[in-house]
From TrEMBL:
Residue numbers binding Zn(2+): 146, 149, 170, 175
MF-aspect GO terms: histone deacetylase activity, NAD-dependent; NAD+ binding; zinc ion binding
Homology family: Belongs to the sirtuin family. Class I subfamily.
Active site as annotated: 138 (proton acceptor)
Annotated ranges, domain Deacetylase sirtuin-type: 8-270
Protein known as: NAD-dependent protein deacetylase
Organism: Lepidopterella palustris CBS 459.81
Entry EC number(s): 2.3.1.286
The entry's keywords: Metal-binding, NAD, Transferase, Zinc
Amino acid sequence: LDESTPTQTLESRTLESVAKFINDGKSKRIVVMTGAGISTSAGIPDFRSPDTGLYANLARLDLPYAEAVFDISYFRNNPLPFYALAQELYPGKYRPTITHSFIRLLYQKGMLLKLFTQNIDCLEREAGVPGDMIVEAHGSFARQSCIECHTAYPDDLMHKAIHEKEVPHCLQKGCGGLVKPEIVFFGEQLPEEFFRNRTLPAMADLCIIMGTSLSVHPFAILPQYCEEGVPRLLINQEQVGTLGSRSDDVLLLGDCDSGVRKLAEACGWLEELEQLWEET
Ligand code: CNA
């Protein structure tokens, strides 16, 4: 696409046009899609950024390959590297970012249709987005269960195990299988709620994609469910997926927090957003 390619819906492929579209009341069903990049400023590393990403820093865990830490067959034989990492990622240590608060603001304004997140850090919930507005496509640390008999394991015991760096085992008589937070590992099915909701982006009148490399499938396909002519705004360090290929795609390349501040400012919501974030 170049400057001369006509738009279908927006006046132009700019952030200001997206803000005008929102302020004109044309956007009441926003679908937001997020990934690790919205939590990096909270102090949680993403996977794939060179140097700072988790995969670049896993050498100390002595893994055969970086992704093994989230591989279910590797975990069965050696759960220790995952639990070393889980201690760092476990909810409670991090504060939601202003980007998380921006999603809450969309919800408060009655504009959020659904948030699809790949993140497992629960920061969307902590920012005040209700659980039923969120599809945690890769699960989260919110629940845990036995990988053999799938019996749920109590939260307080999980909390204790994480902090004492122990690997928890199933409490069912005769089972004793390994317990794992219900985050989706390589080799595991995505939660049923992902499949139930995955075509929802087709109902959106605006889609905002933030902080994801869109390299994990089937999540990566979600933006393509948006109808042609529905504006798709990408706020990310880099261009990803097929974003930028449609007439109403807007790319805001840079960090998420300044991107959402710019969007909020253009909508006249900046003060409200900053206050909401302060109170979180
Ligand atoms: P990824 O593949 O690491 O990609 C992150 C993307 O965000 C990249 O395109 C970066 O350029 C971009 N990015 C990083 N920081 C910023 C920033 N401050 N502002 C704007 N853009 C930024 O992560 P994905 O989420 O796409 O990959 C999917 C994996 C990562 C999922 O399975 C997650 O469970 C997993 N993950 C989650 C967390 C978390 O819950 N916080 C942390 C690390 C990995």
